[in-house]
Design a protein that fits this description.
Nitrilase/N-carbamoyl-D-aminoacid amidohydrolase, six-stranded mixed β-sheet, alpha/beta, 545 residues, 2 domains
Length: 545
């Protein structure tokens, strides 16, 4: 069977645009004389649609669009993802479904069986599970169709499975000759490799070819990398779609292909590409043409500025330098060097007069002068006011430059350096920031070496460094990864680190700063546990006093 894989970029809720992409891709497949054209999970509505599915008018528009798509089909089959409804008055009555059309109408619908309810997934809130799975006979083949999570429960691959049911195994047992999985699987570094290994084991053991089509695009925090995969009946990956861009390719189950060996690149390359893509998508879908960054002369703002230039072009990136009496001459010079290297526009506006005026005004109620921390936060918040003024005046999207280590420990100021519409590197630890910077400079110096080599500092008081408050970043990030991503607790982390006091300090900083993270900008997700709605901890809690 000749199958066209259409790896498209959808927009959540934009049914018309998504519909036309499906129709265009289908027509291309018909012109190429394929037997079947496949699109990703929920491709008609975008993923994740969240509470949009609760709107009756939205669901009615989806039904109308699905009928219009079906009406243009010929004898060439079409599979696309959408929401469907039943009326059994049990649960939500809404399903995440794969719709199969040909000969001008909908011929078969397979609902999703395994409904994920962990990490960033909250599908149980919206969708009912399929009551059964069935193969669909089409052009001499028995199609075993599943949706995303349905395929992530293979008993031969997973040591511990999340679900009792294995819908894909049921499809194999029912005689499926081709397995098809339509997916919207969010990106995290390492997941593409895991996905490939899992699907390879499945197809090798069941001796059935498999087509896995994954959406691409970014929907706020979530990045979808595409890289759709086709496996032969021996478990070999024989075709892979492009990452971070729309793609179209044809898989002939009767044809032999060379094996694909390069599935995922090194961390620095993958994550950099993901962040560039995520920012580009966020701006395009919200119709922001230009972005703004507060450039401090530090590593984080330098990396975000570079990412912005790569995502949007140098002509669409503007930076503002906001020195105070504590800003070193080196930081200002380093910032200008980066500005020259990247060819971007800038302004320089001192915050000192405003900070002094605020301190003078508050001298009486504060009984002389602000405390050191208060003064530091005043500076950060004045910078926030400046940046938001520039954003309002010129319709820039202000980018937040905080990294994951800072966000985790609360080493950031609400309504100050936490301002911004998107936290570009909020899921990148400080040590990883440096690794990515060195990768960027592998062939030439783009980010000035002076920025990379100097001790990190917020420069909010004289001779300040981050390590005045935080443990060294190598140690801090090791603790944070164990706590945030591996879900380890105090005793286990302390045993691995060998310093009970520093572990206690770090974990306390993470716990007591949950209120800050609730007010933070959305974070582009590149790990298995990013801050945002994929990590839900109470603000008020007494687990660790």
């Amino acid at each position: 069977m000749k199958i066209a894989i259409c790896q498209i970029n959808t927009i959540v809720g934009d049914i018309e645009i998504n519909k036309f992409k499906i129709i265009d891709g289908y027509k291309r497949g018909v012109a190429d004389k394929v037997d079947l054209v496949i699109f990703p999970e929920l491709s008609l509505v975008g993923y994740p649609p969240l509470d949009l599915v609760e709107k009756k008018e939205f669901r009615q528009a989806v039904v109308k669009a699905a009928e219009e798509i079906a009406s243009i089909t010929t004898d060439v089959g079409l599979i696309f993802g959408s929401i469907t409804e039943d009326n059994d008055k049990i649960g939500t009555d809404i399903h995440n479904s794969a719709i199969i059309c040909y000969d001008g109408k909908v011929q078969f619908i397979q609902h999703k069986t395994l409904i994920p309810n962990y990490d960033v997934f909250d599908e149980m809130r919206y969708f009912d599970s399929a009551k059964e799975v069935s193969v669909h006979e089409f052009k001499g083949e028995k199609l075993g169709i599943s949706i995303c999570e349905d395929i992530w429960n293979d008993a031969d691959y997973w040591y511990r499975r999340r679900y009792v049911k294995d819908p894909v195994q049921e499809l194999v047992n029912n005689g499926s000759t081709i397995l098809i999985n339509i997916s919207a699987s969010p990106y995290a570094f390492g997941k593409r490799k895991d996905r490939c290994e899992m699907l390879s084991v499945l197809t090798k053991n069941d001796k059935v070819p498999l087509v896995y089509v994954c959406t691409i695009g970014a929907q706020t925090e979530l990045i979808f990398d595409g890289a759709s995969m086709c496996f032969d009946a021996n478990g070999k990956l024989v075709l892979q779609g492009n990452a971070y861009e729309e793609d179209y390719f044809i898989f002939d189950t009767k044809q032999s292909y060379p094996v694909v060996t390069n599935v995922e690149n090194i961390f620095e390359s993958e994550v950099l590409n993901a962040l560039i893509f995520g920012l580009k998508e966020y701006c395009a879908k919200l119709k922001f043409n230009k972005v703004l960054i507060g450039l401090s002369g530090g590593m984080d703002s330098a990396l975000v500025t570079y990412i912005a230039v790569k995502a949007l072009g140098k002509e669409n990136v503007h930076v503002v330098l906001m020195p105070s009496k504590y800003s070193s001459e080196g930081s200002i010079n380093d910032s200008f060097k980066l500005i020259k290297n990247l060819g971007i526009s800038h302004n320089q506006v001192s915050i000192q007069n405003v900070v002094d005026e605020i301190s003078f005004t508050l001298a009486e109620p504060f009984n002389l002068t602000p405390k050191s921390l208060t003064e530091e936060n005043i500076q950060a918040r004045v910078r926030g006011v400046y940046l938001m003024a520039f954003a309002n005046q010129f319709y820039y999207l202000l980018l937040n430059t905080g990294n994951k280590s800072e966000l985790a420990t609360g080493y950031c100021t609400l309504y100050g350096d936490m301002c911004g519409g998107l936290a570009v590197i909020g899921d990148v630890y400080k040590t990883e920031v440096y690794k990515i910077a060195e990768f960027i400079n592998r062939n030439e110096e783009i980010i000035p070496n002076e920025i990379i080599s100097k001790p990190p500092s917020a420069e909010l008081k004289h001779n300040q460094t981050d390590q005045d408050t935080l443990p060294p970043y190598n140690l801090l990030d090791k603790i944070l990864k164990m706590y945030l991503e591996q879900n380890k607790e105090y005793l286990e982390i302390s045993e691995a680190i060998g310093d009970n006091n520093v572990v206690k300090k770090v974990l306390r900083m993470v716990d007591i700063n949950e209120f800050k993270r609730r007010q933070a900008a959305p974070v582009l997700r590149i790990s298995t546990k990013a801050f945002g709605y994929g990590r839900r901890y109470p603000i008020v809690q007494g687990w660790r006093k």
